[in-house]
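worker-3 :: picked anthranilate synthase
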Amino acid sequence: MTGPDPSSSLLHLLTGDAPFALIARDPDTVEVLTGDVVDVELLSDIPLTDADGRHREVLALVPFRQVRERGFVCHDDGAPLRCLVIGERTILPRAEVMASLPSSPVELEGAGFDIADEEYADIVRRVIADEIGRGEGANFVIRRDFVAGVSADPRVAALTWFRALLEHERGAYWTFAVVTDGHIAVGASPEAHVSAQDGIVTMNPISGTFRHPAGGATADTLAEFLRSTKETEELFMVVDEELKMMSAVCTDGGRITGPHLKEMSRLTHTEYMLRGRSDLDPRDILRETMFAPTVTGSPMQNACTVIARHETSPRGYYSGVAALFTPNGAVQGPTHDLDAPILIRTAYLVDGRLRVPVGATLVRHSDPYGEVGETHGKAAGVLGAIGAIPRDVPAAPADADPDAPVAERRPLAEDPAIAALLASRNDRLAPFWMNPQDPDETGPFAGRTAVVVDAEDRFTTMLAHQLRHLGLDARIVHWSRVTDTEMDAADLVVSGPGPGDPRDDDSARIAAMRRVVSRRLHGGAPLLAVCLSHQILADQLGIDLAPLAQPHQGLQKSVDVFGEPASIGFYNTFTARVAPGTTARGLSTVDRDIPIEVAADAETGDVYALRGPAVASVQGHLESILSRDGMRTLERLIAHAL
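worker-3 :: tokens ->
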């Protein structure tokens, strides 16, 4: 029996008007999906069952505006949460699909960026100074769009670009074309945002962008990139941010493996894999992980606010996901598996206008013109693949056969020096997150309860997971909902980290965190204060607060914590500061005296930790992957507070 004829199948898509999707997820085949389009308002409305309760397969294009479901802000363009309810799936050989698709170049008219290079560089400067420099977060992704006019038939353009991506792009997680009424998306996404299969959730943070030089990448040029502090810290920060999400949806918190290289035609990225177990509905997993920090920033909620301040137009589907929900035959538990790549490296065609959105991750080390160049490189990755600009030919390794086809040349990741550079990155990371971590009911604080007060930084999910690993029954409560009753009932209150200036008298969130800290401190009830809350505690103890000359966003430092050295990750723009050499502080109230020990930098006086009767605090993030000694230090501080 012969299979379907690719030529007739694809000709029908080319000349018809029915919606369809083409997806290439492996080297040999292309999935052809056809069905009906349904637009819904919420992720929970994605129609995974029909009127009779039968499970069905759905491909959903999730726009950035869905962050509203998490209470985050955005420029709302009304982009629909578009679902292709799949009626028929056909799997075709990739080579035959390519041979059947159109290949003549699609002409572009009036092509260029919507924001000029100098204007974008100014945005980078403002974000570093006004956002990162004022404690609003560790990193932010600001986009610009490459735009052009397209006079070709939209379906012809879509299938032409899809063919070109299949032929010329490499390393993509999904290569796809989704064609629906009035909207076309064609891309080669390098990054799986989240997947769930048989109860295993996987996330794939990718960050650090190496733009291949003319002639292609070599081991020497890549090695220089891998030694970059900026690029390394950028990757660690997004891993931290995605671990926050994993800790929210996975019972075992999430384990990291890697790093690996993601080699593409014009760009190479570094990446990790995160895996954990979850029994949540895949739509709930998708909601809790909206959206990837690699295309938004961290902390996520504040990143959305910063994006709205510095991007003047809506994102559409850029930085959203394409989510494929496939029935898995399960009777109990999740009935669908999820596969959801990030919508980046994607060309959108609407009403004759091509739009290729690209963004750069801005951190404290960012060079404005370097970030301008990164957006050019990312746009070129798509435009070169689809033939809109000249394509690069990769350079061969020094030991390669010069006559060997490009496809047969050894991946750079196999170079011994490159492999050693990648492996050395893990020497800096916390072993806790590299190993399986189930909750430990026999931990040192078993039988105790903890309330973790969330100040809008989901590092609290990682903290709560670590607390459970130490035996505590830990529950997270948002700052706006925490009550005196539930705090008083807890053995330990962990007052959490968050963005912003701890001196801000106009912030309801800061005021609420002050109340949490004050109630536990003056009531003599066990308190652990972290980062922002540590600064608030210091302020209540009469210790000065000041902005750092250089923000410590994603910075790893070895500090002395009450006589024991500890390697800890810091994400702070403000610090508590005492006179160098200060080791003690006292607070007198009408009820009692509170003696406080101070652990501070011997030269600057920056305060790293505080402890006193039933209270302890730390400036760093013991839950971060950058905190090699995080669990040991956390256990010490909790033991003191309790």
